[in-house]
Structure formats: structure tokens, C-alpha cells
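Notes, p. 3: input format for complexes.
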Amino acid sequence: MTGSHVQTVLERIYATEAPELADVEAVLRITDGDELGRLFDFANEVRRWFVGDGVLLRRIVEFSNVCRNTCQYCGLNRGNDRLQRYRLTKEEILAAVGNIRAAGIKTVVLQSGEEDDLDADWLREIVEEIKSSRDAAVTLCVGERRREEYRLWKEAGADRYLLKIETSDPGLYGQLHAGMSFENRRRCLRDLAELGYQTGSGDLVGLKGQTLRHLAGDVQFFKQGNFDMISISPFIPHPQTPLAEEPAGDLLMTLKMTALARIVSRDAHIPATTALGSLHGRDERPKVLAAGANVIMPNFTPASYRRHYEIYPNKRCVNEDARACPACLEQMVGAMGRWVDYARGDSLKRSLKCEVGSLK
Ligand code: SAM
Ligand code: FES
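Output follows (360 residues plus FE2/S2 (inorganic) cluster):
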């Protein structure tokens, strides 16, 4: 494509309710430096216009690595018998959350593997306790559950829920998730939105068998889903999984997907994921922030458990003291001329009305 053609295609993708797969694929094929520059500038401009220059901080507590699922890429999958499993107690979770609030951060993400015997009332009590004593938004990320469980936690005060579709293609999903149901995952996303959660989804880039067409389908899925949050991570191979020998997801492709997610979703919150802080041992998050992302999600799992939450190897900051995080992030974000935003960072979908085509 020529530079002006790229601009035309980007404007078309931006302005429509139903981006064409061919347009999205054409953007995903870009390798020329000038054309990439146009893409990232366009996405960055959409980001600046709709969500501003602040970079929101969300803190994650990974409270359990017990999982019933079979995701072929994930180190927590139930077949990994070399992983030492753990589950934090209610007291440990509340102590971690207390430390997060003491650090001035107002969003807490409670994440775990998908536990078969997760006690919904136990989690409800934790949500209630956090909401009654602390001014914090609570995000849950505990996988596919029954609608009644989602309702219970929503009524207890949970604000947000993250459930990545991982891939929007049912066939590819089936290949990577034996015994799991793509339809059920979609049902969960529908239930969460209907129950009033600020809902996040996302995908993985570089999965075995994934094509540009699949990725373009993910971009369409993000548009149709009108999600409050979208998370895009490169796949990182884990040695105790069936995909151990597969190459990691490509950084450039992840940047392009982030830029496209920003262009179609406009005001969604999009993190520079921890996986991007861990790819090939380098911290690539500044590049993602420059391609449309506006959130960082550092880890606040107690240090003694952190290394057991091994979704993929060499995860960033596993051995660091979490108290050092704000200074490190302020430096990274400040160097880009942006600033760390300690607000709750609620969804903008319900408050901002922006006209299609208002961005030049
Ligand atoms: N059980 C919850 C769920 O399914 O949403 C949350 C835990 S799950 C481990 C969190 C995310 O880790 C997944 O949505 C997936 O995208 C990501 N993940 C798993 N394995 C990965 C890998 N090898 N490389 C990059 N990200 C991975
Ligand atoms: Fe646990 Fe995928 S292996 S949710």
C-alpha cells in the first residue's frame, strides 16, 4: 500500500460499524516503516482523543493457580503436574488488597485459574469486604462461571470482569481448548455485559494455527463486542505445555493488533500487558503504549506465590519488590511525555459520546 492508501484504509476501518476483513488484513500485512508509522500515529491519535495521555494502573492479585482447563498454551493448564499449586486465603488476599490501596491505587484485579471448586460465597465475601472498607474498583478474572455466580459477585459490588476470547475463530478455539466450549465463552461474555459488568475481552497473538484472517476476525469481534477493556498479548511458549516448541508471538503483529483494537474500540481501556514486558526478556511496553495502549497492570501477588503463577516463563518482575513498581513505571511513562493516572479508571463507554468521523 502507499502511504495515502494506508490512511484511506485506516479511516474506513475507524468510521465503520463493521470493518471489512480485507481492510484489516491489509493493515496486518504492513511491514514498511513509513506505513507502520502512519498506523501507530493514527492509533495514538485516537488514544489521545478518546482516553487522553494518562496511563492507568491496575494491580493484579493472582490468588490461585488451580485450573480445570486445558488451554494448550497456558502453564496453569490442568495437565501441568510440575506446577506447585496454591490458593491464597481470604486474609492473604485482603492483606494484598490493603497494600494496593495503601499505595494509592484504586483498581484491584483478582485473577485465578479456573477452579472447579471455587466457592462462590467465599469470593462474594471477599468482594463485599473490599467494597465495604476501601474505595476501590474490583475486577474479577476467574474464568467461565455460571450466570448466577456472576450475578452474586456483581450484587456484592464487583465492578468489572475480564474474560479473553483468546481467539474469535471457533475452529481454532476448538483446536487449542480440548473439551472446552467456544459457545459457553461467548455466553459468559454476554451474561457479564447484561449483568452490568464493565467487561473486558481480548486475544493472543501468535497461536499455533492462527492466520491473518483469524486476527482480522478478532478485530471485528472487538468492534461488535463494544468491550470496555481489550487485552492483546503475544503468545509466549511455556515448556510444560503442548505448545512448548512453538515460536513466541511476534511483537510487531501484537503492536498492529493493539493499534487496530484502539482504532475500532476508540475509548476502551487497553493494557500494555505483562506478557509484553516479558517478551524475549525485554520490556516492550513503551512501544505498546505508543501504539494505542493506556493501561499497565503490575503484579501485586505476594512475592512467595508469584513465581508459581507461571502462565509463561520469565514473567516480568517476578522477583521484584512490588513497592518499587510506581517509581519504575513513572519513569517509563514520563519518558514518553505521559503520566501515571492513579484514578479508578472506570469505563468511558457510558459517559463519552463521540461522533463517528470526528477525528481527522
Ligand atoms: N482463568 C482466567 C481466564 O481464563 O480468564 C484467568 C487466568 S488466565 C491464566 C489469564 C490469561 O493468561 C489468559 O486469558 C491468556 O490470554 C493468558 N495466557 C495464558 N497462557 C499464555 C501464554 N503462554 N502466553 C501469553 N499469555 C498467556
Ligand atoms: Fe486455565 Fe486456560 S489453562 S484458563
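The longest strand covers residues 198-205.
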